[in-house]
What we know:
Blueprint: H1 13-21, H2 26-33, H3 44-53, H4 59-72, H5 77-89, H6 93-106, H7 112-123, H8 127-140, H9 145-157, H10 161-170, H11 177-191, H12 194-207, H13 212-224, H14 228-241, H15 247-258, H16 262-275, H17 280-286
Helix pairs in contact: 1-2, 1-3, 3-4, 4-5, 5-6, 7-8, 8-9, 9-10, 9-11, 10-11, 11-12, 12-13, 13-14, 14-15, 15-16, 15-17
Amino acid sequence: MHLIPLCLPRNMPEQELAIARVTAEPGNRVRLLKPLKHHPKATGAELREAAELLLEGAPAEARELLEEAARREPMALETHLLRARICRVEQMDRCVQESFKKASEMAPGDARPDLLQAEMQEGDGDLEGALEAMDRARHKAPGEPGVQLRYSRLLSAVGRSEEAEAAIRAAAAKLPPQRLYMELGLLRTREGRNEDARRFFAQAVGEGPQSAVAHFHLGMAHFRLGNLDAAEEELREADRLDVSNPQSLAALCAMQMKAGLKDAALVTKMDLERRFQGQAELIRDACRSDP
């Protein structure tokens, strides 16, 4: 299916974008996408997507495409947010700040600039700055549960656990019960309150018995409490529910090695190697012997 765009007459920007999406090598992406700067039919959105596809491997070329997008659609907030990301990759701090300033001036009530700024500051290890940005975002989007949950996680990260739980509870009316219990369980895990975490994850499993993620976290909680049998049962159920994800078996293998169950770990490792042949490094790290 990925080869179909190669067989089409290529005179439209979306065809170049379709090929670029499945092209991993940055140099090839540049050759495909850079000409879109002069393409009369390319929209601002298409130029922004092309710039984003070049963001990591060719930020200078991405910036050229973005400037053309800004010329064609001067009032698009997305342009300023993407410029902030490009400038960050290029380590141009002043450009990053100017981009955020313009975005905020253009859309003072939009939470997206604050959300992006929080993401960047958290990535830099500035948790207090990220928390301030998330606080601004949640006041601009008071009914958005995703914003409230991100705010809660940052509160937890700086040790403000009671406020973190209050932020989760404030979003409860708009969350499915399973998601609510998952968030509370993750909060208790970060606090080291493993029995409370186990109870919340068990409630999440009760609300969503087909959720591989809920079974995975319940298994991890059992392991932290020293119940390896229950942990294995939950991790194998998580694996059964999501056979494409090696995470559950990898965690089980690590647990077995840590518990000294080397024969059981060898069987788990063989299962991982059989099913996930492209994940050699993950398997090696999960099933390695302690030094």
